[in-house]
Design a protein that fits this description.
two-stranded antiparallel sheet, 23 helices, mainly alpha, single chain
């Protein structure tokens, strides 16, 4: 079974650098520091078989199982079991090992006890050379170093891959919501709390625990609290069934708790440390509530899902409105566009589409209002400026060169057109402004600048210089205009 939140695409802005460093740390420990463990285990197994420890321990284990009501005892002779099976069976049973090392299985009164104890001690000494055994969390022992190191080790490649998949998927979302520092703190504190929960639950028993599962469970618990009731996109895989579904993030908390804690606890033969998982989940939940209460959660990152969905929905609605305009169903298109403009004011494609609606089926007042709605939008880039230029030129043509827009709207548009060197558009706009107020000296300056950009000796340049002399005969630019006209 697999349940993963997958509702955010990785980008450079949200790349989980800290989660990736943690993944690399776990991979390094497994691939390099734990890489020699297999040879140690083989050596220990060889010694176990050479010393024939199974001849005494296997019958004792069968009797112990029967005495403790642990189901049917294994009656198959040790010599017929596959290599290593007996050893794996005994070493995986922490309760039995606890009694074995406490001399409650092979009693001191047994004549074989002294020899067995010496051989068992040598066998354990070989096992202790394994990195995992030397640094894993040991039940019934409070060892701060092992509490930390155990959360970076794994029992096998499948264990590592499964944990790292969740660390990257959930880690990207939690790291983005908390930032690198708080994310690392949550991971480490969650792993420590998980280890302490495991020690508490297993205290008095023999055995060990390792893996990043507790720390990752803390991330999972924190994720559910941080996203709360928001619906998130989740990928699920159950045997041969897999798909995406949208559910409230909090709903996943129950699913993960059942998967990580309840199901393993019901399986008597499971080697999954469900106490570790439970401790990590609860720690993550508590820390996430505390971080939310202090306002240390990045709301912008969490809200981005809704913004993306809203943008995708609005883009689809805009596309539908544009199709309706092409089909000349203007009223329907206008209703959609007005709703979009009300929800997100100032989107240039929406305003341009509204202008098209007004041009096709609108009164002069509606055309004016739609044109003003476009031309009042700032133009930080040349691409936007060219869009404004196109609407202005169409509107000026519709008004026969006499725009009815407010003067301040036209004045804001002037530097945009000048920046594009759109001389024809600047010419029409300046003439409209000069008709309204020829006393404005800044308009004389702008007109003279337009004259200078016009190629020498062309009729357009002479006409513009003549217009300057006609409208601004007393300005500082009039003598310059006369001089340029005299030069041809």
């Amino acid at each position: 079974m697999l349940i993963l939140p997958l509702h955010r695409t990785w980008t450079r802005a949200n790349f989980p650098w800290m989660a990736m460093l943690l993944v690399l740390a776990n991979v390094f420990v497994f691939a390099f520091l734990q890489s020699g463990d297999h040879a140690v285990y083989q050596q220990a197994q060889a010694y176990y078989e050479q010393a024939d420890l199974g001849a005494i321990e296997f019958p004792a284990y069968a009797q112990w199982l029967t005495a403790h009501g642990r189901g049917e005892a294994p009656t198959q002779p040790f010599t017929t079991l596959p290599p290593g099976a007996m050893l794996a069976l005994i070493e995986s049973d922490g309760a039995f090992l606890a009694d074995l090392h406490a001399d409650r299985v092979i009693l001191p009164t047994d004549p074989r006890h002294a020899q067995w104890q010496n051989q068992r001690a040598q066998f354990d000494a070989i096992l202790d050379r394994a990195f995992s055994r030397a640094h894993a969390l040991r039940f019934s022992h409070v060892e701060p170093g092992r509490i930390v190191t155990s959360m970076f080790m794994h029992g096998g490649l499948d264990h590592l891959l499964g944990n790292m998949l969740f660390l990257l998927a959930v880690g990207m979302l939690v790291e983005g919501a908390l930032g690198h520092g708080w994310f690392l703190g949550l991971y480490l504190c969650g792993g420590i709390c998980a280890a302490l929960a495991s020690l508490y639950w297993h205290w008095g028993s023999e055995g060990n625990s390792l893996g990043a599962s507790g720390a990752i469970a803390a991330l999972m618990g924190a994720y559910c609290v941080i996203w709360g009731r928001r619906k998130v996109r989740v990928f699920y895989w159950f045997f041969v069934v897999f798909d995406y579904v949208k559910v409230p993030a909090l709903a996943m908390l129950g699913l993960w708790f059942a998967w990580l804690v309840v199901v393993p606890s019901l399986d008597a033969h499971s080697h999954i440390d469900y106490a570790d998982h439970a401790g990590g989940l609860l720690a993550g939940i508590g820390m996430a509530f505390a971080l939310r209460a202090r306002g240390w959660v990045r709301r912008d990152f969490i809200d981005e899902d809704e913004r993306i969905e809203r943008t995708q929905h609005d883009d689809a609605e805009l596309e539908r409105a544009q199709r309706l305009i092409g089909q000349m169903e203007i009223p329907k298109a206008r209703d959609i566009l007005l709703r979009l403009d009300r929800d997100q004011p100032g989107r240039l494609p929406v305003r341009i589409a509204l202008y098209r609606c007004a041009r096709y089926q609108g009164t002069p007042a509606q055309v004016d209002a739609a044109a003003a709605g476009v031309l009042e939008i700032p133009a930080p880039t040349d691409a936007i400026a060219r869009e404004l230029q196109s609407v202005w030129e169409d509107y000026a043509q519709a008004c026969a060169g006499a725009p009815r827009l407010p003067t301040d709207t036209l004045q804001r548009l002037l530097p945009v057109l000048q920046r594009l060197d759109a001389d024809a558009a600047v010419d029409g706009l300046l003439r409209a402004l000069i008709e309204r107020d020829s006393s404005d000296a800044t308009l004389a300056q702008a007109w003279f600048a337009l004259c200078l950009r016009t190629p020498d000796g062309t009729p357009a340049r002479r006409a513009r210089l003549a217009f300057l002399l006609e409208r601004y005969p007393q300005s500082d630019y009039a003598p310059k205009a006369r001089f340029l006209l005299g030069q041809g």
